[in-house]
Specification:
Belongs to the gamma-glutamyltransferase family. By secondary structure, this protein is of the alpha+beta class. It has 17 helices and 21 strands. The chain has one domain. The structure holds glutamic acid (GLU).
Length: 583
């Protein structure tokens, strides 16, 4: 049972920072002395893994079958995903992980976001004339590579919660890397699409891994071996610090600093990396409490702002088959995205008005816009009390990433979103894995046209803003209800919010909620995925929305929900190749 939930009504606006580490620390001061003890949840309930690839799901299930904790399974899932779904996440990337410990009731956010090199300046992505660099010069460049954080983050979470040996988490990945795995259709599509995206020939390791000698991309079904990856997972199994110090770290830095377009990351940056435990950002929504990751992730704030904006409205009465239901979802998304774009960045470096954005009075003022019957003319950020208007953000966006959920038989939950940022990250490899291009999640321009500083500007040691939205929902008794999340760049927030409204308000199963067409309303254009009912599209257009309809959307939603009788049901996004399965 989540202990801090008993404090929710005592805090203004229902915003709660769920503290980490121990049950005692999890009690906010406002709740001190309330005399509420955590219930000890008994072991051996149902378990489940929902992830984007069957090999990864199987590895996670094997860890659970061996008596592993959800975090042991997460290590197995991540190390296999980095091999079989390298376009999305891996050992060279970063992640945010929400961990719910059923026995203590603690909820902890583990922040494994990449950091910029100590020497990075706000001009990181500007050319000599002060103009933003193009795609190849910024993304497919050493400049974009931050210190990979996923491995350090998993090691920290394992030290806190692991039941199996750390090394066991790499067995499945090592075996698959040595024996080979069949390239999936989705991976084959990205390999074929890789060459035209940039000068792949510059990077022999990636070229040799994915192409024949005559330059033909390897097809789906090809048995791919990756001995370098096996060597890496062996080294990490022996000591996770092998990624941050020693020969593997040196190989990473060689790849970063390789010509052309060398980056500034150094061995000192790698050695200095720290994963961070953070307070989860939780807010009440109707009869539930919705928890997500705080800055530098924008997911926890923005998903909760969308829900807060919808709360005054009876969403159950306006279901997914109504124009009105989608109108409200669109307007709430536009308002919350505008705030997110304006204010959210690494709160260790800039002031982020987290409490102001989620304050009940502020949200109620913002929600007045939704009471209209026609489309809001534009989507501009609000200004929470006591906050000055920041510079206009110029952070670009590109899809990659993977999300998975694990519930173990003790009822512990992992909700983890993990990324190398763009497809295959920077395209540069070391140790059999791809290096991220996460630093392009900073605003390319550090100031706006009026010279105002942009909160998400690059800076030495800073973490770029993320859209990742790993989410866990609890009921009013503090019992786990569901965990959800998705890849998809800034659309992650809309994809995740859609599933929450779908399940909590519209009564859908996880799978039905995943399969609803994605609707992404950021800025003045509303993207609507193929499959939306024509009458809804016509109705939205008649209200004055500018629609970009019948398009594909790159979500990869994975969900596990616990029903009242304790049964687990899951959902896997058919837009990807995943599964939700029990051991
Ligand atoms: N790098 C992005 C972020 O952290 C995610 C990219 C994606 O989902 O494709 O927000």
């Amino acid at each position: 049972m989540l202990r801090f939930l008993f404090a929710t009504t005592a805090l203004a606006g229902g915003l709660i920072l769920a503290s980490c580490s121990s049950a005692d620390e999890a009690m906010p001061e406002t709740n001190a002395g309330a005399g509420i003890e955590a219930e000890v949840t008994s072991a051996s309930g149902p378990a489940m893994v929902a992830a984007a690839n069957p090999h990864a799901v199987e590895a996670g299930l094997d860890a659970l079958r061996a008596g592993g904790d959800a975090i042991d399974a997460a290590i197995a899932v991540q190390s296999v995903l980095g091999l079989v779904e390298p376009q999305s996440s891996g050992l060279g990337g970063g992640a945010f992980l929400l961990y719910y410990d059923a026995q203590s009731g603690d909820l902890t956010v583990y922040d494994g976001r990449e950091t910029a090199p100590a020497t990075a300046t706000p001009e990181l992505f500007l050319d000599l004339n002060g103009q933003p660099l193009g795609f190849v010069e910024s993304v497919l460049s050493g400049h974009s590579i931050g210190v990979p954080g996923a491995v350090a983050m998993l090691a920290m979470a394992h030290a806190d919660h692991g039941a199996l040996d750390w090394a066991d988490g790499f067995d499945a990945a090592t075996g698959l890397a040595e024996d080979g795995f069949e390239i999936s259709p989705r991976l084959a599509g990205f390999i074929a699409g890789m060459a035209p995206r940039g000068p792949l020939d510059e990077w022999p390791a990636s070229r040799d891994y994915f192409f024949t000698d005559d330059g033909t991309p390897l097809p789906a079904g090809h048995l791919l071996r990756n001995p370098a990856y096996a060597e890496t997972t062996r080294a990490l199994a022996a000591d996770w610090r092998a990624l941050y110090e020693g020969p593997l770290a040196a190989a990473i830095i060689d790849a970063v600093q390789d010509e052309p377009r060398p980056g500034g990351l150094t061995l000192t940056d790698l050695a200095a990396y720290q994963a961070v435990r953070r307070d989860a950002l939780c807010r009440d929504y109707r009869e539930w409490t919705v928890c997500g990751a705080p800055p530098p992730a924008s997911g926890g704030i923005t998903v909760n702002e969308i829900l807060g904006l919808l709360e005054p409205y009876d969403m159950t009465a306006t279901g997914p088959d109504t124009v009105e239901g989608w109108r409200r979802f669109i307007e709430a998304s536009r308002l919350a995205y505008a705030d997110r774009d304006a204010y959210v960045a690494d709160a260790d470096f800039v002031d982020v008005p987290v409490a102001g954005l989620l304050d009940a009075d502020y949200i109620n003022r913002r929600a007045l816009g939704i009471s209209r019957t026609t489309a809001l003319p534009t989507s501009v950020p609000g200004i929470p009390d006591g906050v000055s208007e920041p510079g206009a953000d110029a952070t670009p966006d590109s899809p990659g990433t993977s999300h998975f959920v694990i519930v173990d038989s003790d009822g512990d939950v992992v909700s983890m979103t993990t990324t190398v940022e763009s497809v295959f990250g920077s395209h540069r490899m070391a140790g059999g894995f791809f290096l991220n291009n996460q630093l392009t999640d900073f605003s390319r321009a550090p100031t706006d046209a009026e010279g105002r500083v942009v909160p998400n500007a690059p800076e030495g040691g800073k973490r770029p803003r993320s859209s990742m939205s790993p989410t866990i929902v609890f009921d009013r008794d503090g019992e786990f209800v569901l965990a959800t999340g998705s890849p998809g760049g800034s659309s992650i927030i809309a994809y995740t919010a859609k599933t929450l409204v779908g399940m909590l308000d519209w009564g859908l199963t996880p799978q039905q909620a995943i399969e609803l067409p994605n609707v992404v309303a950021r800025g003045d254009i509303v993207r609507v995925e193929d499959g939306m009912d024509a009458n809804i599209l016509a109705g939205l257009a008649a209200l004055g929305f500018t629609l970009d309809a019948n398009r594909g959307e790159n979500s990869g939603l994975h969900i596990v929900r616990r029903l009242e009788d304790g049964t687990l049901i899951g959902g896997a996004d058919p837009r990807r190749e995943g599964q939700a399965r029990q051991p």
